[in-house]
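Narrative summary of target 7.
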Amino acid sequence: MTAPRSGVVALVGRPNVGKSTLFNRLCRTRDALVLDRPGLTRDRQYGRARGIADADVTLVDTGGLHDSLTISSAIDDQVMLAVEEADLVVFVVNARENLTNADFEIADELRKSDTKVILAVNKIDGISAGNEFGVSEFSQLGFNPVFPISSTHGHGVYQLVESLVAQLPVQDTVFSETTSDSISVAVIGRPNVGKSSLVNALADDNRCLVFDEPGTTRDAVHVHIEKDEKVFDFVDTAGIRRKGKTTDVVEKFSIVKALDALRVCHIALLVIDASEGLVEQDLHLIDYAIDAGTAVTLVANKWDKLDSTARLKCQEQIRRKLRFADWISIKYVSALKKTGLAPLFDAIHVLFERGTFEISTHELNEVLKQITTANPPPASQRRLIRLRYAHKIASRPPTILIHGNQTDRLPANYVRYLENEFRRLLGLDGWPIVVNFKKSVNPFSGRKNELTPRQQKHRARIIRHRKRK
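Modeled conformation, tokenized:
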């Protein structure tokens, strides 16, 4: 029996040669953004290859080397970091284009890295005699063997996978996916507020691409951090601007991925620029997080740039605008100076534990009785609304089902009162509370009471008797 192999494989090449498409095919996901546009991928994107027997392969999708963008030097640094940590590099080139100087430069850089390299000639579909073309044209790069493939249609991918697995070392798994014990955290916010800098500071590593330009991050980048024997899965997301300002299709896809991260993560860190304070778009993002049922912590970044007067003004402005959700905790940090980060890990862990929402039905009904005694539900059409009993139906977010009569007539302000009181009395600060209702149903509703023949005769005698009088 062949010993299982595992390792890290980096996908490297010029922009728009199909690295992200190959990444998605091997991982069987759509985690990497794909569009016929150069420079789409910027950060390192990690994923686990699927369907490879006896092998545990971690793939790293990278940005295009030697791009013409102003951010290209930062992208190149991220690519070379991926090459350094990889056991094997798949050098991807484009069969539909002639060899360029950039291809030869990348080949020279990869040879200097002392990392094993496999050459994959992508996009052979649609080219007559595609396999022969790929081998003959690109063998000039000096890598052997050459694998002609089509990432889009899967041609030649199986042979490529067989070769790379055979060259991986026999060792333990080097990458662990998010487990049920890990705490997933979505880092969201407007563009250029320091989300990637914050994730890098928390990881103590240059893990995410940082550049002084809005819209740097495009993919949702997962970063695994172990702290005090706890595993955190941070998801660095693209900046979310107002809908009216979002016109580029790439930015729209990036925002969709950011909002998807809210739905699957346990906790959201909403990062704001402390010098700008809490703006309207931040309040919209809080609403998104609440609707997604995600715990929220507000992180005011760039705190080091403010003097004492400006800090007091910022704190007052945040408190004033957060009155509708005063259960959200606020942390003041500086990702650049790495201050205020340790309490952030503790706050995330506390929120995660609160979200388990372990409570018995008896205890929950005692709390409901306390709440309704202090402030009973209002009457509706001269009839009292009664909340009879409650029980837990879900965790993260804490979800409660209350049974009663005429619950559909409860006003919205009383429902908010119930949510706030449950949160206060059960110690669930930081979490949105979901309160659902189920009203009692009259089992005889809509049924006509049919009289028996004897009852009908009795009724007729009474009517005749009254008429005589």
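The longest helix spans residues 249-264.
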